[in-house]
Amino acid sequence: MKIVVQRVSKASVTIAQKKVVSIANGLLILLGVVNEDTIEDIGWLTNKIVNLRVFGDDSGVMNTSIKDINGEIIVVSQFTLHASTKKGNRPSYIKAAKPDVAIPLYQRFIKQLEQDLGKSVQTGEFGADMKVELINDGPVTIIMDSKNKI
Q1: Which of 6, 46, 55, 78 is flagged as catalytic?
Q2: What is the pLDDT of residues 59-83, one digit of tens each?
Q3: DSSP one-letter string for the chain
Q4: Cβ partners under 8 Å of residue 3, min gap 6
Q5: Model confidence over 5-62: pLDDT tens digits?
Q6: Which of these is catalytic: 79, 109, 112, 122?
Q7: What DSSP assignment string belongs to 54-96?
Q8: Which of 59, 77, 96, 108 is most deeply packed, by most CB within 10 A?
Q9: Is 109 known to be catalytic?
Q10: pLDDT for residue 150 is more than 80
Q11: Annotation says 80 is catalytic
């Protein structure tokens, strides 16, 4: 499982010209799933996300987490995170899990993230053509892959 975590001062997702979710201060998470991903991958990533100290403390040092600031989260599915560009100029998405595998893991990820955070998170719509708008605060962008835990 691969994620891109962006600290945002605001973010939103629009589908078919309708804004479906929006947040203020928080995190926008792009999530890509592969067939080999498991519940353990989900637990490791969600724990990292809620405890990731990327928000400024009283001294302006990145020393507080999303839980500490009571921030909001949007999760957006993004199979293109597993694109392979080794050959040619057209990316291959062969590593990305098909919907029958990806959707249950995506849903479980959201549920686990909500449990770890202690409140609900906003989401895009799996498989939809989404327009994601954000103001990356910092900018702070962190990429994590559950296959690189060690």
Answers
A1: 78
A2: 989 999 999 999 999 999 999 999 9
A3: -EEEEEEEEEEEEEETTEEEEEESSEEEEEEE-BTT--HHHHHHHHHHHHH---EE-TTS-EEE-HHHHT-EEEEEE-GGGG-B-SSSSS-B-TTBPPHHHHHHHHHHHHHHHHHHHTS--EE--TTS-EEEEEEEEEEEEEEEEGGG--
A4: 29, 30, 31, 32, 45, 49, 81, 143, 144, 145
A5: 999 999 999 999 999 999 999 999 999 999 999 999 999 999 999 999 999 999 989 9
A6: 79
A7: -EE-TTS-EEE-HHHHT-EEEEEE-GGGG-B-SSSSS-B-TTB
A8: 77
A9: no
A10: no
A11: yes
CA distance 46 to 8: 18
Q: Is 79 a catalytic residue?
A: yes
Comparing 19 with 148, which gets the higher pLDDT? Answer: 19
Confidence band (pLDDT; 50, 70, 90) for 149? Answer: confident
